[in-house]
Amino acid sequence: MSSSYAARITSLAPAEDPAHVEAWMRLKHPILDALAAEEFAREVTVAVACIRMAGLGESDELARSFGFEPARRRR
Q: Whole-model pTM?
């Protein structure tokens, strides 16, 4: 994933695929630049919960719908 948010997401949720996290975040916030640091961190936490509930397959599909290519790392 080449998003400018990948490093920031990885620092907050190192076990997660940043493509998945960003995709879930963008469902609610199409423009992530507008989020304050603590709100960004809170939304990362929400996105991680969404990934766990939806699963990797659905999260892969969602990420691809935003043009992100998910990594193939596994927990």
A: 0.91
